[in-house]
Amino acid sequence: MTEHLQQARDDLEQAEKSADDSDIREDIRETADAFADYAMGDTEPDHALVDERLNTLRQIKERSDGTTEDKVESAIESVEEYREGIEQA
After folding, report:
1. Which residue, 20, 25, 67, 78, has most beta carbons within 10 Å?
2. Range of 51's domain?
3. Whole-number Å distance between alpha carbons of 67 and 89
4. Per the domain annotation, does 89 fall within a domain?
5. Lowest mean pLDDT, pick from 2-6, 20-24, 38-42
6. Model pLDDT for residues 7-36, shown as the tens digit of each residue
7. Do 72 and 57 contact (CB within 8 A), yes or no?
8. Is 75 among the domain residues?
9. How many folded domains does the chain comprise?
10. Closest by alpha carbon to 50, among 87, 10, 23, 14?
11. Per-residue confidence band for 86, with pLDDT thresholds at 50, 70 and 90
């Protein structure tokens, strides 16, 4: 399941490179780093953490365009697939 988070991180790294706005780049970098921590960590994030990150990504997508927007959308899809596999509390 961590492959979804790794894919999201990869997409976000590409989105960061294509972003024109420094605030968007920073938000993308922070979210990508969180996914890297989740993928490498011993514990899985719960629904609340994943939902928080998804909300951030959706906000980034609204502020983006072109390649950045496309890569953020791809990351959202990967995280949503990951979220489906998380057991409900």
Report:
1. 78
2. 2-84
3. 36
4. no
5. 38-42
6. 999 999 999 999 999 999 999 999 999 988
7. yes
8. yes
9. 1
10. 87
11. confident
